[in-house]
Design brief:
Length: 264
């Protein structure tokens, strides 16, 4: 979705994981491991190129077709209101993070580029906020439902730090991490990247699992420390939305405490 040139520029000028210091920056300026959230102007320029390259694609499922048309956008004010509300929420979060991080004066906050949203997630707003739905669910008609409600503290921060600390505190905890292979928001390669950095010991090697029609659903790998990584082939960010049978097998396996390939 981006050129090799842009990718190499991103690697050169933008920060990545906390333990990967910028090769062209003075490391004494890295006050703490969360410093990479503050980026340079050059990095912002590259991020804007990347954001523009993503326009017209559903980043939650990169091989999906865009469900939205200009006509739908213009004729659906509720959708537009939800979209604007979502943008304001994200901008507010970024502003709060930047204020709390104590930015270095030589750096600037990350830019926030909003390509035209190419997904149907926002239609959940339309459905749940309709008078008909509220009436059937016996919901107060004055209540307005929004996605990613900032009043709900559900974010865990950086996955690497969260799982690293959690697994140290609770060594008997069993954790499964799953990822749709067409997810562009939290790509499978990125998920595997931070898991590899945990330096865990493989107990059961990378192996495919199948659906009832003997078709490959994805792959799974188990570590002695209690973590399992499962991929779902052909699924985007919301796995059950794209691959219901595979999602059912995944959840059933988790409840039974065995890998998907071991479920009869």
């Amino acid at each position: 979705m981006i050129s090799s040139k842009t990718f190499n520029l991103f690697k050169r000028y933008c920060f990545h994981n906390p333990d990967e210091l910028h090769p062209e920056e003075n490391t004494t300026r890295l006050n703490d491991k969360y410093f990479p959230r503050n980026v340079t102007h050059r990095c912002n320029e590259i991020r804007e190129i990347i954001s523009n390259n993503l326009r017209g694609s559903d980043i939650y499922g990169i091989y999906r077709e865009c469900p939205l048309t200009e006509k739908i956008n213009k004729e659906n004010p509720l959708y537009l209101n939800s979209q604007n509300s979502y943008r304001k929420t994200i901008l507010k979060r970024l502003k709060e993070k930047n204020n709390n991080n104590g930015l270095n004066e030589e750096l600037e906050p990350e830019i926030t580029v909003f390509p035209e949203l190419c997904d149907d997630d926002m239609f959940i707003d339309t459905f749940l906020n309709s008078d008909e739905t509220k009436n059937k669910l016996k919901i107060d008609p004055s209540i307005h439902w929004v996605q990613c409600n900032p009043k709900l503290k559900y974010e865990i921060g950086k996955s690497f730090d969260f799982y690293s600390e959690t697994m140290k505190q609770f060594p008997d905890l069993k954790v499964w991490v799953f990822s749709g292979t067409e997810d562009g928001v939290l790509p499978t390669l990125g998920t595997m990247r931070w898991i590899n950095k945990l330096n865990l010991t493989i107990e059961k090697n990378w192996k495919q699992y199948y659906d009832d029609n003997k078709q490959v659903c994805g792959y799974a790998q188990q570590y002695k420390e209690g973590l399992v990584i499962v991929t779902v082939k052909g699924a985007g960010h919301m796995v059950p939305q794209d691959k219901r049978a595979a999602a059912y097998k995944l959840y059933s396996s988790f409840i039974k405490g065995v890998l998907p390939s071991e479920v009869e």
